[in-house]
Design a protein that fits this description.
10-stranded mixed β-sheet, 3 helices
């Protein structure tokens, strides 16, 4: 009898064991890599599903949101602007007020933009950022406000137009009303808001909070975005958006 663990048999057995060991390591390594790749694919799919769900939720929220409800009603906006105007100086150290603009910034803040013309003053006293030629200055300052949510009611487009023109005729103010650009063709997947926003420019003969602004709240869906004053023309102007429902559209029950 011979010892099979000696001689060539021993070498062959050792080699076979080594090969088997390497093969096991390779197989184990490949299995681990495959499992890691599968886990990464599942994680990627979960992330994609989460992103899609978030986008759907955001779109649903956007569809439920009514932008005009978050904007100040005309009367509340005008009263806030009036308080800011009452504090406004018309001249300061040889600089006179050239223009004044009142805009909503946040539910608790207005933005007051002023421009000034030099009338004998010097640059050191310019109330704001000086222009290159040294004769004009511009400034922006906040002013406190407190706006509550606005009414949800809006009219159909034709009725909204009739309502704001009735206001203009009754109060003797100038009005320019413009429709938004026509909708571009969609792929059928992008939802279209059931409402639109017309732009309205109203020329007041005096500060609108004195008389003419009283009827603005009666125009459903009207929201002012700016009240301005131009000293050279002694003119007041209101700029805003008139929200209305598109033809055949209506607010869903969840928005009522």
């Amino acid at each position: 009898m011979r010892d099979v663990l000696t001689g060539p048999w021993k070498s062959t057995a050792s080699l076979a064991a080594a090969v088997a060991g390497v093969a096991s390591l390779v197989a184990g390594g490949w299995y681990w890599y495959d499992q890691q790749q599968e886990a990464e694919r599942e994680a990627q799919m979960r992330r994609q599903r989460a992103i899609a769900a978030a986008q759907s939720a955001n779109e649903a929220a956007r569809q439920r949101a009514l932008p005009w409800v978050e904007e100040a009603a005309p009367a509340a906006f005008l009263q806030a602007c009036r308080r800011a105007w009452d504090k406004q100086v018309l001249a300061d150290a040889g600089w006179t007020l050239a223009s004044w603009r009142c805009k909503p910034a946040t539910p608790t803040t207005l933005s007051i933009e002023t421009s000034w013309k030099r009338e004998g003053g010097v640059a050191a006293n310019a109330p704001g950022m000086l222009s290159v030629d040294g004769n004009l200055a511009n400034a922006t300052a906040p002013s406190p406000a407190a706006f509550l949510p606005s009414p949800r009611a809006v009219n159909a487009t034709a009725e909204a137009q009739r309502s704001i023109w009735t206001y203009a005729h009754a109060n003797g103010v100038g009005l320019q009303l413009a429709m938004p650009p026509p909708l571009l063709p969609t792929d059928g997947k992008t939802p279209v808001d059931p409402w639109l926003a017309m732009t309205a420019d109203i020329a007041f003969g005096a500060p609108p909070w004195l008389v003419a602004g009283d009827g603005l709240d009666l125009v459903a869906g009207l929201r002012l975005t700016e009240v301005s004053y131009e000293a050279a023309a002694q003119g007041w102007k209101g700029t805003g958006k008139l929200y209305a429902m598109r033809a055949g559209a209506s607010l869903s029950a969840r928005n009522q």
